[in-house]
Amino acid sequence: MAKWLDNAIFYEIYPQSFLDTNGDGIGDFQGIIEKLDYIKELGCNAIWMNPCFASPFGDAGYDVADYYQAAPRYGTNADLKRLFNEVHKRNMHILLDLVPGHTSVAHPWFKESCKADRNEFTDRYIWTDSTWGQLENMGSLCGISEREGSVIVNFFAHQPALNYGFYKKTQDWQQDPDDPGPKATLAEMENVMRFWIGMGCDGFRVDMAGSLVKNDEDSKGNIALWRKVRAFLDAEFPEAVLVSEWGEPDKSLQGGFHMDFLLHFGPSHYNDLFRCEEPFFSGRGKGDVAAFVEKYKENYEKAQRKGLICIPSGNHDMDRLARSIHGEELKVAFAFLLSMPGAPFLYYGDEIGMRYVENLHSVEGGYGRTGSRSPMQWDHTTNAGFSAAPKEKLYVKQDEATDRPTVEAQMADPDSLYHEIQKLINIRQAHSALQSRGEIEFVYAEADQYPLAYLRSDDKEKILIIINPADREVSFDGDYAVKEALYTFGGEAAFAGGKVTVPGGSAGFYLL
Q1: Domain of life here (predicted)?
Q2: pLDDT(348) > 90
Protein backbone atom coordinates (compact mmCIF):
# COMPACT_ATOMS: atom_id res chain seq x y z
CA MET A 1 0.00 0.00 0.00
CA ALA A 2 1.17 3.53 -0.79
CA LYS A 3 2.69 4.83 2.46
CA TRP A 4 1.81 8.42 1.56
CA LEU A 5 -1.82 7.73 2.44
CA ASP A 6 -0.86 7.39 6.10
CA ASN A 7 -0.61 11.16 6.47
CA ALA A 8 -2.57 12.28 3.40
CA ILE A 9 -4.78 15.35 3.63
CA PHE A 10 -6.77 15.81 0.44
CA TYR A 11 -7.95 19.00 -1.21
CA GLU A 12 -10.86 18.47 -3.58
CA ILE A 13 -10.70 20.61 -6.71
CA TYR A 14 -13.74 21.18 -8.87
CA PRO A 15 -11.68 22.22 -11.92
CA GLN A 16 -14.28 24.39 -13.64
CA SER A 17 -14.63 26.56 -10.52
CA PHE A 18 -11.08 26.84 -9.21
CA LEU A 19 -9.09 29.34 -11.31
CA ASP A 20 -9.58 30.50 -14.91
CA THR A 21 -6.34 31.58 -16.60
CA ASN A 22 -7.58 32.14 -20.17
CA GLY A 23 -10.58 34.38 -19.48
CA ASP A 24 -13.34 32.08 -20.71
CA GLY A 25 -15.13 31.97 -17.34
CA ILE A 26 -14.21 28.32 -16.70
CA GLY A 27 -11.34 27.06 -14.54
CA ASP A 28 -8.51 25.12 -16.17
CA PHE A 29 -5.44 22.96 -15.54
CA GLN A 30 -3.10 25.94 -15.64
CA GLY A 31 -5.16 27.56 -12.89
CA ILE A 32 -4.63 24.50 -10.69
CA ILE A 33 -0.90 24.53 -11.40
CA GLU A 34 -0.69 28.19 -10.38
CA LYS A 35 -2.34 27.45 -7.02
CA LEU A 36 -0.44 24.29 -6.04
CA ASP A 37 1.80 26.28 -3.72
CA TYR A 38 -1.31 27.71 -2.02
CA ILE A 39 -2.69 24.19 -1.46
CA LYS A 40 0.63 23.01 -0.07
CA GLU A 41 0.98 26.05 2.20
CA LEU A 42 -2.47 25.34 3.63
CA GLY A 43 -1.10 21.91 4.58
CA CYS A 44 -2.78 19.63 2.06
CA ASN A 45 -0.44 17.15 0.43
CA ALA A 46 -2.86 15.41 -1.93
CA ILE A 47 -5.49 16.42 -4.49
CA TRP A 48 -8.69 14.81 -5.67
CA MET A 49 -9.75 16.44 -8.93
CA ASN A 50 -13.32 16.01 -10.15
CA PRO A 51 -13.83 14.59 -13.66
CA CYS A 52 -11.67 16.27 -16.28
CA PHE A 53 -12.27 14.08 -19.34
CA ALA A 54 -13.99 15.06 -22.59
CA SER A 55 -17.71 15.39 -21.96
CA PRO A 56 -20.85 17.22 -23.14
CA PHE A 57 -21.10 18.28 -19.47
CA GLY A 58 -24.72 17.31 -18.96
CA ASP A 59 -23.63 16.19 -15.48
CA ALA A 60 -20.56 18.35 -14.88
CA GLY A 61 -18.19 15.80 -16.43
CA TYR A 62 -19.69 12.72 -14.79
CA ASP A 63 -20.97 11.94 -18.29
CA VAL A 64 -17.76 10.97 -20.07
CA ALA A 65 -17.47 11.10 -23.86
CA ASP A 66 -13.81 9.99 -24.04
CA TYR A 67 -11.89 8.49 -21.12
CA TYR A 68 -8.57 9.04 -22.90
CA GLN A 69 -8.93 12.74 -23.65
CA ALA A 70 -8.82 15.72 -21.32
CA ALA A 71 -11.76 18.10 -21.70
CA PRO A 72 -10.52 20.83 -24.08
CA ARG A 73 -11.98 23.56 -21.87
CA TYR A 74 -9.46 22.60 -19.18
CA GLY A 75 -6.51 22.03 -21.49
CA THR A 76 -4.77 19.20 -23.32
CA ASN A 77 -3.50 15.81 -22.23
CA ALA A 78 -0.04 17.38 -22.22
CA ASP A 79 -1.30 20.09 -19.83
CA LEU A 80 -2.73 17.43 -17.55
CA LYS A 81 0.56 15.54 -17.59
CA ARG A 82 2.34 18.77 -16.68
CA LEU A 83 -0.09 19.19 -13.76
CA PHE A 84 0.86 15.70 -12.51
CA ASN A 85 4.54 16.61 -12.79
CA GLU A 86 4.09 19.91 -10.92
CA VAL A 87 2.18 18.11 -8.15
CA HIS A 88 5.00 15.60 -7.76
CA LYS A 89 7.68 18.30 -7.76
CA ARG A 90 6.07 19.53 -4.54
CA ASN A 91 6.04 16.05 -2.99
CA MET A 92 2.26 15.95 -3.34
CA HIS A 93 -0.06 13.38 -4.96
CA ILE A 94 -3.13 13.55 -7.17
CA LEU A 95 -6.11 11.26 -7.76
CA LEU A 96 -8.31 11.57 -10.83
CA ASP A 97 -12.06 11.01 -10.58
CA LEU A 98 -12.90 7.77 -12.41
CA VAL A 99 -16.52 7.25 -13.48
CA PRO A 100 -16.65 3.58 -14.47
CA GLY A 101 -20.39 2.99 -14.16
CA HIS A 102 -21.69 4.91 -17.14
CA THR A 103 -20.75 7.19 -20.01
CA SER A 104 -22.47 9.95 -21.91
CA VAL A 105 -24.77 9.08 -24.81
CA ALA A 106 -22.20 11.05 -26.84
CA HIS A 107 -19.49 8.43 -26.24
CA PRO A 108 -18.45 6.62 -29.45
CA TRP A 109 -18.79 3.29 -27.61
CA PHE A 110 -22.47 4.01 -27.06
CA LYS A 111 -23.09 5.08 -30.65
CA GLU A 112 -21.62 1.77 -31.84
CA SER A 113 -23.62 -0.12 -29.21
CA CYS A 114 -26.84 1.35 -30.61
CA LYS A 115 -26.30 -0.31 -34.01
CA ALA A 116 -28.38 -3.33 -34.98
CA ASP A 117 -25.45 -5.31 -36.38
CA ARG A 118 -23.25 -6.94 -33.75
CA ASN A 119 -19.90 -5.32 -33.11
CA GLU A 120 -17.33 -5.14 -30.31
CA PHE A 121 -19.48 -2.58 -28.43
CA THR A 122 -22.84 -4.37 -28.68
CA ASP A 123 -22.48 -5.65 -25.11
CA ARG A 124 -20.51 -2.73 -23.71
CA TYR A 125 -23.77 -1.35 -22.21
CA ILE A 126 -26.74 -3.03 -20.54
CA TRP A 127 -29.50 -3.57 -23.10
CA THR A 128 -32.81 -5.34 -22.61
CA ASP A 129 -34.20 -7.58 -25.35
CA SER A 130 -37.36 -5.53 -25.86
CA THR A 131 -38.00 -1.88 -26.62
CA TRP A 132 -41.42 -2.02 -24.98
CA GLY A 133 -41.15 -3.62 -21.54
CA GLN A 134 -41.12 -1.59 -18.34
CA LEU A 135 -38.33 -2.28 -15.85
CA GLU A 136 -38.60 -2.47 -12.08
CA ASN A 137 -36.00 -0.61 -10.02
CA MET A 138 -34.03 0.50 -13.08
CA GLY A 139 -34.28 3.50 -15.33
CA SER A 140 -34.01 2.96 -19.05
CA LEU A 141 -33.94 4.80 -22.34
CA CYS A 142 -35.81 3.39 -25.32
CA GLY A 143 -36.64 4.30 -28.87
CA ILE A 144 -33.27 5.91 -29.56
CA SER A 145 -31.48 3.12 -31.45
CA GLU A 146 -31.86 0.95 -34.49
CA ARG A 147 -31.24 -2.14 -32.34
CA GLU A 148 -34.08 -3.76 -30.49
CA GLY A 149 -34.18 -3.10 -26.74
CA SER A 150 -33.88 -0.41 -24.10
CA VAL A 151 -30.63 0.67 -22.51
CA ILE A 152 -30.35 0.83 -18.72
CA VAL A 153 -29.33 4.26 -17.41
CA ASN A 154 -27.67 5.37 -14.21
CA PHE A 155 -29.04 8.60 -12.74
CA PHE A 156 -29.73 11.00 -15.65
CA ALA A 157 -31.30 9.75 -18.90
CA HIS A 158 -28.13 10.67 -20.83
CA GLN A 159 -25.93 8.30 -18.75
CA PRO A 160 -26.23 4.76 -20.16
CA ALA A 161 -24.91 2.10 -17.78
CA LEU A 162 -21.78 0.20 -18.75
CA ASN A 163 -22.17 -3.56 -18.61
CA TYR A 164 -20.34 -5.37 -15.80
CA GLY A 165 -23.00 -8.07 -15.55
CA PHE A 166 -25.63 -9.09 -13.01
CA TYR A 167 -24.76 -10.98 -9.85
CA LYS A 168 -28.26 -12.46 -9.71
CA LYS A 169 -29.87 -12.83 -13.14
CA THR A 170 -33.65 -12.63 -13.32
CA GLN A 171 -34.09 -11.98 -17.07
CA ASP A 172 -32.71 -13.69 -20.17
CA TRP A 173 -31.05 -10.48 -21.41
CA GLN A 174 -29.02 -10.06 -18.22
CA GLN A 175 -25.41 -11.19 -18.53
CA ASP A 176 -23.11 -12.82 -16.01
CA PRO A 177 -20.00 -10.85 -14.86
CA ASP A 178 -17.87 -13.56 -16.51
CA ASP A 179 -19.60 -13.28 -19.89
CA PRO A 180 -17.53 -11.80 -22.74
CA GLY A 181 -19.30 -8.40 -22.75
CA PRO A 182 -18.81 -7.58 -19.05
CA LYS A 183 -15.24 -8.92 -19.14
CA ALA A 184 -14.43 -6.68 -22.11
CA THR A 185 -15.90 -3.65 -20.29
CA LEU A 186 -13.73 -4.28 -17.24
CA ALA A 187 -10.65 -4.85 -19.40
CA GLU A 188 -11.23 -1.51 -21.12
CA MET A 189 -11.63 0.29 -17.79
CA GLU A 190 -8.32 -1.23 -16.73
CA ASN A 191 -6.84 0.17 -19.95
CA VAL A 192 -8.13 3.61 -18.94
CA MET A 193 -6.42 3.30 -15.55
CA ARG A 194 -3.24 2.04 -17.20
CA PHE A 195 -3.19 5.06 -19.53
CA TRP A 196 -3.55 7.72 -16.83
CA ILE A 197 -1.28 6.08 -14.28
CA GLY A 198 1.27 5.87 -17.07
CA MET A 199 0.77 9.60 -17.62
CA GLY A 200 1.57 10.24 -13.96
CA CYS A 201 -1.55 10.27 -11.81
CA ASP A 202 -1.31 8.48 -8.46
CA GLY A 203 -4.60 6.64 -8.65
CA PHE A 204 -8.33 7.25 -8.64
CA ARG A 205 -11.27 8.22 -6.54
CA VAL A 206 -13.93 5.92 -7.97
CA ASP A 207 -17.45 7.23 -8.45
CA MET A 208 -20.23 4.99 -7.09
CA ALA A 209 -17.83 2.07 -6.88
CA GLY A 210 -20.33 -0.35 -5.34
CA SER A 211 -22.89 -0.08 -8.14
CA LEU A 212 -21.19 -1.60 -11.20
CA VAL A 213 -22.43 -5.19 -10.98
CA LYS A 214 -26.23 -5.07 -10.86
CA ASN A 215 -28.67 -7.11 -8.74
CA ASP A 216 -25.90 -7.49 -6.18
CA GLU A 217 -27.63 -7.15 -2.83
CA ASP A 218 -24.69 -8.30 -0.70
CA SER A 219 -22.05 -6.64 -2.93
CA LYS A 220 -20.32 -9.96 -3.56
CA GLY A 221 -20.18 -9.33 -7.29
CA ASN A 222 -18.80 -5.84 -6.90
CA ILE A 223 -16.22 -6.97 -4.33
CA ALA A 224 -15.07 -9.69 -6.74
CA LEU A 225 -14.84 -7.18 -9.60
CA TRP A 226 -12.68 -4.75 -7.62
CA ARG A 227 -10.45 -7.56 -6.40
CA LYS A 228 -9.67 -8.24 -10.06
CA VAL A 229 -8.83 -4.57 -10.52
CA ARG A 230 -6.63 -4.58 -7.43
CA ALA A 231 -4.79 -7.68 -8.72
CA PHE A 232 -4.17 -5.91 -12.04
CA LEU A 233 -2.88 -2.80 -10.25
CA ASP A 234 -0.73 -4.81 -7.84
CA ALA A 235 0.89 -6.52 -10.80
CA GLU A 236 1.56 -3.38 -12.83
CA PHE A 237 1.22 -0.36 -10.54
CA PRO A 238 1.48 -1.52 -6.91
CA GLU A 239 1.66 2.07 -5.61
CA ALA A 240 -1.58 3.12 -7.38
CA VAL A 241 -4.24 4.26 -4.91
CA LEU A 242 -7.97 3.55 -5.03
CA VAL A 243 -10.41 5.53 -2.87
CA SER A 244 -14.05 4.51 -3.18
CA GLU A 245 -17.31 6.33 -3.14
CA TRP A 246 -19.12 3.34 -1.65
CA GLY A 247 -20.12 4.18 1.92
CA GLU A 248 -19.58 0.63 3.22
CA PRO A 249 -15.90 0.33 4.17
CA ASP A 250 -16.14 -3.31 5.16
CA LYS A 251 -17.04 -4.08 1.55
CA SER A 252 -14.83 -1.57 -0.26
CA LEU A 253 -11.71 -2.53 1.73
CA GLN A 254 -12.43 -6.20 0.96
CA GLY A 255 -12.54 -5.19 -2.69
CA GLY A 256 -9.04 -3.76 -2.53
CA PHE A 257 -9.75 -0.08 -2.01
CA HIS A 258 -7.40 1.75 0.33
CA MET A 259 -10.05 4.06 1.78
CA ASP A 260 -13.80 4.62 1.57
CA PHE A 261 -15.88 7.79 1.63
CA LEU A 262 -18.48 8.29 4.32
CA LEU A 263 -21.46 9.20 2.16
CA HIS A 264 -23.92 11.97 2.91
CA PHE A 265 -26.81 9.71 1.92
CA GLY A 266 -27.71 6.32 3.31
CA PRO A 267 -27.36 5.19 6.91
CA SER A 268 -24.13 6.96 7.95
CA HIS A 269 -25.79 9.79 9.94
CA TYR A 270 -23.08 12.09 8.53
CA ASN A 271 -25.76 14.72 7.93
CA ASP A 272 -26.53 14.75 11.67
CA LEU A 273 -23.19 16.50 12.13
CA PHE A 274 -23.41 19.40 9.70
CA ARG A 275 -26.47 19.34 7.45
CA CYS A 276 -29.81 18.96 9.20
CA GLU A 277 -32.28 21.18 11.06
CA GLU A 278 -30.22 21.02 14.27
CA PRO A 279 -26.65 20.00 13.36
CA PHE A 280 -24.46 18.68 16.17
CA PHE A 281 -21.88 21.34 15.27
CA SER A 282 -24.30 24.24 15.73
CA GLY A 283 -23.69 26.46 18.74
CA ARG A 284 -27.37 26.07 19.64
CA GLY A 285 -26.37 22.73 21.11
CA LYS A 286 -29.54 20.87 20.12
CA GLY A 287 -27.91 18.26 17.89
CA ASP A 288 -27.25 14.60 18.46
CA VAL A 289 -23.99 12.79 17.60
CA ALA A 290 -24.86 9.40 19.12
CA ALA A 291 -26.32 7.72 16.02
CA PHE A 292 -23.36 8.85 13.91
CA VAL A 293 -20.90 7.46 16.44
CA GLU A 294 -22.72 4.13 16.68
CA LYS A 295 -22.71 3.73 12.90
CA TYR A 296 -19.08 4.81 12.68
CA LYS A 297 -18.09 2.26 15.35
CA GLU A 298 -20.01 -0.45 13.52
CA ASN A 299 -18.17 0.31 10.26
CA TYR A 300 -14.87 0.65 12.11
CA GLU A 301 -15.20 -2.84 13.57
CA LYS A 302 -16.39 -4.34 10.28
CA ALA A 303 -13.30 -2.88 8.61
CA GLN A 304 -11.03 -4.63 11.16
CA ARG A 305 -10.43 -1.39 13.03
CA LYS A 306 -8.42 -0.02 10.12
CA GLY A 307 -10.18 3.33 10.42
CA LEU A 308 -9.78 4.12 6.73
CA ILE A 309 -13.11 5.93 6.54
CA CYS A 310 -12.79 9.37 4.94
CA ILE A 311 -15.00 12.15 6.33
CA PRO A 312 -15.14 15.11 3.92
CA SER A 313 -15.83 18.71 4.91
CA GLY A 314 -18.18 18.65 1.95
CA ASN A 315 -18.07 18.04 -1.78
CA HIS A 316 -19.66 19.05 -5.07
CA ASP A 317 -22.78 16.98 -4.31
CA MET A 318 -23.84 18.51 -0.99
CA ASP A 319 -24.53 21.88 0.62
CA ARG A 320 -21.55 23.97 1.62
CA LEU A 321 -20.54 23.45 5.23
CA ALA A 322 -21.12 27.16 5.84
CA ARG A 323 -24.78 26.94 4.82
CA SER A 324 -25.77 25.44 8.17
CA ILE A 325 -22.90 26.23 10.55
CA HIS A 326 -21.15 29.56 10.74
CA GLY A 327 -18.30 31.59 12.15
CA GLU A 328 -16.51 29.97 15.09
CA GLU A 329 -18.68 26.85 14.71
CA LEU A 330 -16.67 26.07 11.56
CA LYS A 331 -13.41 26.06 13.53
CA VAL A 332 -14.80 23.55 16.03
CA ALA A 333 -16.06 21.40 13.13
CA PHE A 334 -12.61 21.32 11.54
CA ALA A 335 -11.05 20.32 14.88
CA PHE A 336 -13.23 17.21 14.55
CA LEU A 337 -12.64 16.65 10.83
CA LEU A 338 -8.86 16.93 11.20
CA SER A 339 -8.60 14.63 14.22
CA MET A 340 -10.52 11.61 12.91
CA PRO A 341 -8.99 8.47 11.32
CA GLY A 342 -8.82 8.11 7.56
CA ALA A 343 -7.71 10.85 5.18
CA PRO A 344 -9.51 14.19 5.63
CA PHE A 345 -10.94 15.71 2.45
CA LEU A 346 -11.31 19.51 2.27
CA TYR A 347 -13.62 20.79 -0.45
CA TYR A 348 -12.15 23.82 -2.21
CA GLY A 349 -13.23 27.03 -0.49
CA ASP A 350 -14.32 25.34 2.73
CA GLU A 351 -11.02 26.48 4.24
CA ILE A 352 -12.24 30.08 3.98
CA GLY A 353 -15.88 29.38 4.80
CA MET A 354 -17.25 29.87 1.29
CA ARG A 355 -21.03 30.03 1.35
CA TYR A 356 -23.69 28.18 -0.56
CA VAL A 357 -24.96 30.59 -3.22
CA GLU A 358 -28.73 30.60 -2.95
CA ASN A 359 -31.38 30.55 -5.70
CA LEU A 360 -29.20 29.66 -8.67
CA HIS A 361 -30.53 28.09 -11.84
CA SER A 362 -29.10 24.65 -12.50
CA VAL A 363 -25.78 24.62 -14.33
CA GLU A 364 -24.60 21.46 -16.11
CA GLY A 365 -26.83 19.12 -14.14
CA GLY A 366 -26.12 20.70 -10.78
CA TYR A 367 -29.71 21.52 -9.78
CA GLY A 368 -29.73 22.04 -5.99
CA ARG A 369 -26.00 21.32 -5.90
CA THR A 370 -25.16 24.31 -8.09
CA GLY A 371 -24.88 26.70 -5.14
CA SER A 372 -21.98 24.62 -3.78
CA ARG A 373 -20.05 24.85 -7.07
CA SER A 374 -19.54 28.60 -7.34
CA PRO A 375 -16.12 29.99 -8.37
CA MET A 376 -13.33 30.15 -5.81
CA GLN A 377 -12.90 33.51 -4.10
CA TRP A 378 -9.23 34.46 -4.17
CA ASP A 379 -9.02 38.19 -3.60
CA HIS A 380 -10.71 41.63 -3.79
CA THR A 381 -10.30 42.09 -7.55
CA THR A 382 -12.85 41.52 -10.34
CA ASN A 383 -14.68 38.18 -9.97
CA ALA A 384 -12.78 37.65 -6.69
CA GLY A 385 -9.69 36.89 -8.75
CA PHE A 386 -11.22 33.78 -10.31
CA SER A 387 -11.49 34.98 -13.91
CA ALA A 388 -10.93 37.94 -16.22
CA ALA A 389 -14.18 37.16 -18.04
CA PRO A 390 -17.24 39.42 -17.68
CA LYS A 391 -19.19 38.12 -14.69
CA GLU A 392 -22.14 36.96 -16.82
CA LYS A 393 -19.75 34.52 -18.56
CA LEU A 394 -18.64 32.79 -15.37
CA TYR A 395 -19.35 29.06 -15.31
CA VAL A 396 -21.49 29.51 -12.18
CA LYS A 397 -22.61 32.80 -10.65
CA GLN A 398 -20.38 33.89 -7.78
CA ASP A 399 -21.27 34.89 -4.24
CA GLU A 400 -21.82 38.63 -4.74
CA ALA A 401 -22.10 39.61 -1.08
CA THR A 402 -19.83 42.49 -0.12
CA ASP A 403 -18.54 40.48 2.85
CA ARG A 404 -17.82 37.30 0.89
CA PRO A 405 -14.77 35.53 2.32
CA THR A 406 -11.58 35.53 0.25
CA VAL A 407 -8.23 33.80 0.54
CA GLU A 408 -6.50 37.18 0.54
CA ALA A 409 -8.48 38.49 3.52
CA GLN A 410 -8.27 35.25 5.49
CA MET A 411 -4.52 34.90 5.00
CA ALA A 412 -4.10 38.45 6.32
CA ASP A 413 -6.18 37.72 9.45
CA PRO A 414 -4.32 35.57 12.03
CA ASP A 415 -7.65 34.61 13.66
CA SER A 416 -9.28 33.40 10.45
CA LEU A 417 -10.70 29.98 9.66
CA TYR A 418 -7.89 29.50 7.12
CA HIS A 419 -5.20 29.90 9.80
CA GLU A 420 -7.10 27.66 12.26
CA ILE A 421 -7.24 24.88 9.67
CA GLN A 422 -3.57 25.38 8.85
CA LYS A 423 -2.76 25.07 12.57
CA LEU A 424 -4.88 21.92 12.93
CA ILE A 425 -3.21 20.31 9.93
CA ASN A 426 0.24 21.05 11.34
CA ILE A 427 -0.71 19.42 14.66
CA ARG A 428 -2.15 16.37 12.89
CA GLN A 429 1.02 15.96 10.85
CA ALA A 430 3.20 16.26 13.97
CA HIS A 431 1.40 13.39 15.76
CA SER A 432 1.07 9.98 14.12
CA ALA A 433 -1.76 9.01 16.50
CA LEU A 434 -3.91 11.70 14.85
CA GLN A 435 -3.23 10.48 11.32
CA SER A 436 -5.10 8.04 9.10
CA ARG A 437 -4.11 4.80 10.82
CA GLY A 438 -4.18 5.91 14.46
CA GLU A 439 -6.81 4.01 16.45
CA ILE A 440 -9.95 5.61 17.82
CA GLU A 441 -11.99 4.89 20.95
CA PHE A 442 -15.05 6.99 21.77
CA VAL A 443 -15.23 7.83 25.48
CA TYR A 444 -18.26 10.16 25.50
CA ALA A 445 -20.94 10.30 22.80
CA GLU A 446 -24.32 10.25 24.51
CA ALA A 447 -27.71 10.80 22.89
CA ASP A 448 -28.74 14.49 22.90
CA GLN A 449 -25.69 15.39 24.99
CA TYR A 450 -22.49 17.37 24.59
CA PRO A 451 -19.49 17.11 24.32
CA LEU A 452 -18.05 14.48 21.98
CA ALA A 453 -14.84 12.92 23.32
CA TYR A 454 -12.57 10.25 21.88
CA LEU A 455 -9.06 8.85 22.23
CA ARG A 456 -6.67 8.64 19.27
CA SER A 457 -3.68 6.39 19.81
CA ASP A 458 -0.85 4.40 18.28
CA ASP A 459 2.24 2.70 19.66
CA LYS A 460 3.85 6.10 20.33
CA GLU A 461 1.19 8.22 22.06
CA LYS A 462 -2.39 8.64 23.24
CA ILE A 463 -4.36 11.85 22.68
CA LEU A 464 -7.76 12.79 24.13
CA ILE A 465 -9.93 14.87 21.78
CA ILE A 466 -12.81 16.85 23.29
CA ILE A 467 -15.22 18.67 20.97
CA ASN A 468 -17.98 20.91 22.38
CA PRO A 469 -19.81 22.91 19.71
CA ALA A 470 -22.59 23.95 22.15
CA ASP A 471 -22.49 27.52 23.46
CA ARG A 472 -22.59 26.33 27.09
CA GLU A 473 -20.23 24.67 29.52
CA VAL A 474 -20.68 20.91 29.76
CA SER A 475 -18.99 18.08 31.64
CA PHE A 476 -18.57 14.33 31.66
CA ASP A 477 -17.02 11.77 33.97
CA GLY A 478 -13.42 10.83 33.33
CA ASP A 479 -10.10 10.63 35.12
CA TYR A 480 -7.27 11.64 32.81
CA ALA A 481 -3.65 12.50 33.54
CA VAL A 482 -2.98 15.21 30.97
CA LYS A 483 0.67 15.86 30.13
CA GLU A 484 0.14 18.68 27.68
CA ALA A 485 -2.58 20.57 25.80
CA LEU A 486 -1.52 20.16 22.17
CA TYR A 487 -4.33 22.35 20.84
CA THR A 488 -7.16 24.37 22.30
CA PHE A 489 -9.78 26.61 20.78
CA GLY A 490 -12.41 28.45 22.79
CA GLY A 491 -10.80 27.70 26.16
CA GLU A 492 -9.17 24.76 27.91
CA ALA A 493 -10.98 21.87 29.56
CA ALA A 494 -10.58 21.42 33.33
CA PHE A 495 -9.69 17.99 34.73
CA ALA A 496 -10.49 17.55 38.43
CA GLY A 497 -12.16 15.09 40.78
CA GLY A 498 -12.87 12.50 38.12
CA LYS A 499 -14.76 15.01 36.00
CA VAL A 500 -13.90 16.88 32.81
CA THR A 501 -15.46 20.33 32.45
CA VAL A 502 -15.50 21.76 28.94
CA PRO A 503 -16.07 25.42 27.93
CA GLY A 504 -18.77 26.24 25.40
CA GLY A 505 -17.77 26.45 21.74
CA SER A 506 -14.44 24.73 22.33
CA ALA A 507 -12.15 22.02 21.07
CA GLY A 508 -9.03 20.56 22.65
CA PHE A 509 -6.41 17.90 21.99
CA TYR A 510 -4.74 16.65 25.19
CA LEU A 511 -1.66 14.44 25.29
CA LEU A 512 -2.07 11.76 27.97
Answers
A1: Bacteria
A2: yes
